[in-house]
Amino acid sequence: DAIKNYRTKTLALQSPVGESRVALDELERIQQAVRECDSREGAPTVAHVCKFAPTTRASVNDPELPALQSGEDPSTNNNMLLGIARVLSGNLRTEDVDYHMFGPRYCESEGHGVPTQRIRCYLLMGAEFVKVDSVPAGHICAIYNLEELHLKTVTLCDRRNCMPLRGFEFGLQPLVKVNVEAVSAADTHALERGLLKLSLADSSVEVTATAKGERILACLGEIHLEQAILELQNTYCERVVKMRVSDPITAFCETTDWFTNEGDFESFLDDKRPPLRQATIPPYCDEEGLAYANRGRCRTLLSGRGAAISMRAIPLPRKVYDCLRNKHVVEGSEDELIAVAKALRCFEDESLTQPESALGVLLKSLDDIDDNGNALIECSLLSTGYSVKSVKSTNGEVYMTRKDQKKENDDDFKENSIEGLQEYQSTRKMIRKGLIIANDDHDAVSFSADSVALEKWSHDMRGSALAGFQLAMRAGPLCEEPVRGVAVVLEACEIAVDENGKVAKEITGGMTVAALRQGIRCCLLTRPARLVEGHLRLTLHSSLSGLGSLHAVLSKRRGKVITDDMVDGTDLIQVTATIPQAESFGLAPELLKKSSGEVTAPELVFSHFDFLDEDPFWVPQTQEEREDFGSNLETGDSSTGLNNTALKYIRMVRNRKGLLVDSSKIVVAAEKQRTLSRKK
């Protein structure tokens, strides 16, 4: 029954969206023919190509096979790809019918086009492919002329109103990614075509092109990667191509951690401690707008200084994210929900904070939530207009904070005379209320004066702020990796208006997007920085004598053993453990070498993302720390001189992406230096 249900689910056409009645009727007839495996004359013809098989032209018995194009070398371009298909209904014919080709992501409502072309059918006879004129329903055949579609699975039908099959879902994802490039630029086109053929022939291989021009080849493991590179060079490239293969690319995510006193809203807001170390060392201190950020809060100015947006970034625990996603309190999330509610000040009396009420306040303020554990929260004071202020300005600019606002030897200086200062202080007062709405505060907002600013925020800037949040979550400030587990809270907005009460300067959506992205990056840089790394689950068998070396290797690579059970009837132990993905490369050869063959090769599968609880910018400060870890190594750069795993990963990713690294030593006025000892 399980096999029957799985087959029924797999060999089923996808449901259409927004089709006409005539199209739905025809689709129903096609589905009925597929269910009955109808091979009668006139029945709809449906075939599904589930994979591609590489072969040579010499293995194809077809006198009418199209010849090679002029200029192609038969000795190097003798390979071809044939699609392996099962005919589900009707009769699949050679060169007689123009079949519609439906890809796995075809959607009629999105306006996807359906290419049509003729095919050639072959019967699988051992290692040879024999041409046949037609293949009835229920049989398996090979199909030629599908290579140019660049689709891993294709559904063929002689009727236009069809849908692709659901296909199989194995749940496996590539673990090893490398960048492949040709040594000579003239071989780039041949390499790209070879990568396309490789991705079609091997369904486990994924080939993607990044915006920077990288060609990423992703495979299931190191052995799979070696085999894929070998097949790419010897089989799928049209000629001999010399290529460079980078080191394995490891994916990380960026996140943040709590401050020690962040649970007390008032004391944390008044905390005037100096900025964290990463905000004072290059290249992180060069982030634009960092001067307006402190301890996770930032007041970012739009281009032209016509408006300012105040925001805050805090950690978003995974269980709290699950509560926001499911809209109910998840078991085990009560303490974390209360911690987030206290950090955001959801209630006036913190002692009465309950998980259900805290979740209700967060859901009411929630603007957006993504798939990486991030959320955008709009403070209720901002959405209702209490913290949206219009600044009457003669130059069309909002108030700018300065370290030394008062001028020396200026007896006539008055703070109230500065344009926008009063509105700025009012927004600071509203920020102190957190997510609470103070209905009895009559001085909080004047809707008659701030209606223009509120309308501008609600209709024009709010949607762009959402786009800026999504853009900022794609690349963090540490090493331009995706951000994970962060909640961004929009707290206040100030907009400059002229004497007539209209917006003084034009505020476009792009300006809001850029400002919010910049502000979120500055918020994250002024908070404790952390990395999130992927973990793999490995399963292997070991003898009793190999357990010592196994645990030593796993401990060195920061692995954790989950279970170790005896296999019934043998003297072997089945070990299940997790290991960081960055430490998994070269694991199998080291295990075999250290254990002298007493441990089998591990089977690696992606498990989860986990928080790397290590501050990449920590240095010894106290006398005891200096005695335990040594003094900071001063070599003319910002190196900590410590064995810091998180900092090593950050530098590795920045090096790979061509970003400035803090450990790179830049010599100033190098031509003026001289060596003390000279060669004679």
Structure write-up:
By secondary structure, this protein is of the alpha+beta class. The protein is built from 16 helices and 27 strands. A 9-stranded mixed beta sheet has the order 2-8-7-10-3-1-11-5-6. Strand 18 (297-301) and strand 19 form a beta hairpin. Helix 3 (188-201) crosses helix 4, helix 7 crosses helix 8 (355-365) and helix 11 (447-474) packs across helix 12. It is globular, with a radius of gyration of 32 Å. The model is unreliable at 6-10, 403-417, 440-449 and 633-639 (pLDDT under 50).
Q: pLDDT average, as an integer? A: 83
Helix fraction by DSSP (H/I, runs of at least 4) = 25-40%
| Total E-strand runs | 27
Q: Which outline best applies?
A: globular
Question: The biggest beta sheet, please?
Answer: 9 strands, mixed
Our measurement of the CA-to-CA distance between the termini, rounded to an integer number of angstroms, reads: 87 Å
- SS summary, helix count: 16
The value of Rg in angstroms is: 32 Å
* Parts with pLDDT < 50 across at least 5 consecutive residues: 6-10, 403-417, 440-449, 633-639
The largest sheet has its strands arranged as 2-8-7-10-3-1-11-5-6
Sequence-ordered SSE layout with sheet pairings:
Elements: H1 2-10, H2 21-36, E1 46-56, E2 60-61, E3 79-89, E4 91-93, E5 99-102, E6 116-117, E7 120-125, E8 128-132, E9 134-136, E10 140-144, E11 154-157, E12 176-182, H3 188-201, E13 206-209, E14 215-219, H4 222-236, E15 243-245, E16 252-256, H5 265-269, E17 293-294, E18 297-301, E19 307-315, H6 318-326, H7 334-344, H8 355-365, E20 366-369, E21 375-378, H9 380-383, E22 388-392, H10 421-431, H11 447-474, E23 486-497, H12 509-525, E24 529-542, H13 547-556, E25 560-566, E26 573-580, H14 587-595, E27 603-612, H15 623-629, H16 645-657
Parallel strand pairs: 2-8, 21-23, 22-23
Antiparallel strand pairs: 1-3, 1-11, 3-10, 4-9, 5-6, 5-11, 7-8, 7-10, 12-14, 12-15, 13-14, 16-24, 17-18, 18-19, 19-23, 20-21, 24-26, 24-27, 25-26
Helix pairs in contact: 3-4, 7-8, 11-12, 13-14
